[in-house]
Amino acid sequence: MTASQSQNVPHPVARKFGWWDPRRWLTAKELTMLVVLSLLAAGLWGFIRLAQYVETGEVSHLDRHLVLMLRNPDDPADPIGPLWLEEMMRDFTALGGTGVLTLMVLAVGGFLAMARKSHAALLVLVSVVGGVLVSQTMKWAYARPRPELVPHGAEVYTASFPSGHAMMSAIVYLTLGALLARTQANPGVRAYVLSVAVTLALLVGTSRVYLGVHWPTDVLAGWALGGLWALVCLMAMLWLQSRGRVEEDTDEPAR
User: pTM of this prediction?
Assistant: First the structure.
């Protein structure tokens, strides 16, 4: 088959889906950019809507219902489920704590520095520190009280909105997961790594509601803002890498 003939052969996906294949109109780069912009818009819209709701100073029936649903109706101090589940939820919430995330970021930053990727290590640190500043600024701006419907299952020291654990776990795990996924040539391995990162962030946020220290809308806002910030930082890293200002974090696929 000649080069000109091969150009006329439709892509396998195009042969299967025909007119519905988006690659009939968009290049891979354009399609990726469209997906990224859609995710950014969705995250920003979600956070703005939740913030507007919080500004009213009201707690919705759904917020109250979900918090109480996770407690024993006869004893609000007792979370539903066996004791081992309550202890496991404390373990999950610790995965989004300052100490665990700090150790993880420092460990990854140290690894990148030892691998002679000091600019990438610095960008990871700046991304996380920036996320902390955004989280604390939002907490100060909205100053939403913590839930008082049930006794707290963990110590709290700051305002409720957005959930710092949910936001920072999304930033750290999604950022590090995306960096690790970019070092893998196998699409299945990439999907697995990203799935683990998303699962960790979801477990941390869910545990905050289970322990009664956050309203569900706090956690949703933390996930939205954390995912948005992680995506922005990842796009910034890719842009800097394309210009040689940050070391590449991918290896050539094995041949």
Answer: 0.81
